[in-house]
Amino acid sequence: MTVPETVPEPSAVGVAPLADAASEGASLDRAAEWRDDPQTLPRLRADPRTRVLVVRERRVPLGDGLILVPADDAVLARTREWALLGRRPDGSGLLLALQEPEDDTDADGSWAPRWSDLREALPLVDAADGELVVAAIALAGWLRDAGFCPACGSPAELRQSGWSRHCGSCGREHFPRTDPAVIVAVQSADGERLLLGANAQWKGRFYSCFAGFVEAGEALETTVHRELFEEAGVRVRDVTYFSSQPWPFPRSLMVGFHATAVDDAEVHGDGEEIVDVRWLSRAEIGSALAGDGPVGLPGEASIAHRLIVDWYRR
Asked: Which of 19, 138, 166, 239 is the Cys-Cys partner for 248 at CB 3.0 to 4.6 Å?
């Protein structure tokens, strides 16, 4: 099962990869205790210390870094939905302003940042801002797409400072969803080669780790074994957890694993989703990481890239 948009396009050689937020000590203070107070958003919007991240069609504004604007900035007048993102170290608030898609230059030309999606933004910001970008794009997607109750179709009222919706018709509560998916780096039985696959939607431009959504009632480890057998015909052993990465395309949580093939010779692509599989030596992976081929690799913002690098450095 292919995970839609879970692997970004190859990024430019020389751009430093974004480290895991947890490993860098970054952790967004989401100020969850503020959410239930109906005055939180009005209070923060009136506070001159508050800063706001604008999201337009899954894109955020960049200049020299991530652009956060004051809550009274004129560019916020067209905001469709507001939500609480969290609290800065000085105690001031962080808000999300969801806006409709616009041209890269606003109508009066007074504000013309570079609008960047997650793939473009993550390698260019630090870990703390990267975590903020992911949270904002994920929440903005839910705010944009979940205005109606999925049970009865009635309009759903926004509550908890943008983190839940209440259906006044049937009384149900709805919250932002996260869909778990596994992504796996498979090494050969002797540990000297890495198995990568080319997905049909990439048209052979690059190779990556194998990924797929967790099905209903399925454990993560079961998904690993099922997906590897379905997509690459390979049985695996020694499945070990690596790390996870939220990837809001539209709402995935990628859970990364390493594994070892039981039999290197039994691998083959399924011919539909995976059009080719290749065992790559450590030297070939090193060359590909340097941008010299023999294959293109996933972008440095992705957990797929980090899985490959982690294996290569062993």
From this structure: 138
Tell me how far the alpha carbon of residue 23 is from its chain's centroid. Answer: 17
**Phi (first) and psi of residue 194, to 5 degrees:** -120, 135
Note whether 78 and 59 are within 8 A (CB): no
Helix (H, G, I), strand (E, B) or coil at 121: helix
**Is the CB of residue 106 less than 8 Å from the CB of residue 112?**
yes
Distance (Å) of CA 105 to CA 61, 115, 123: 11, 9, 23
- For residue 67, give both structure tokens: 């652009």
Dump the DSSP string for 66-95: B--EETT-GGGGG-SEEEEEEE-TTS-EEE
Residues 6+ apart with CB under 8 A from 313: none
CB within 8 A of 163, min separation 6: which ones? 35, 83, 84, 139, 175, 176
Q: What angle do CA 93, 124, 126 make, to 5 degrees?
A: 50
pLDDT tens digits for range 92-135: 999 999 998 865 556 566 788 999 999 899 999 999 999 999 99
What is the predicted pLDDT for the residue at 104?
52
Answer whether 0.90 is exceeded by the pTM.
Answer: no
Q: How many other CB atoms sit within 10 Å of the CB of residue 36?
A: 12
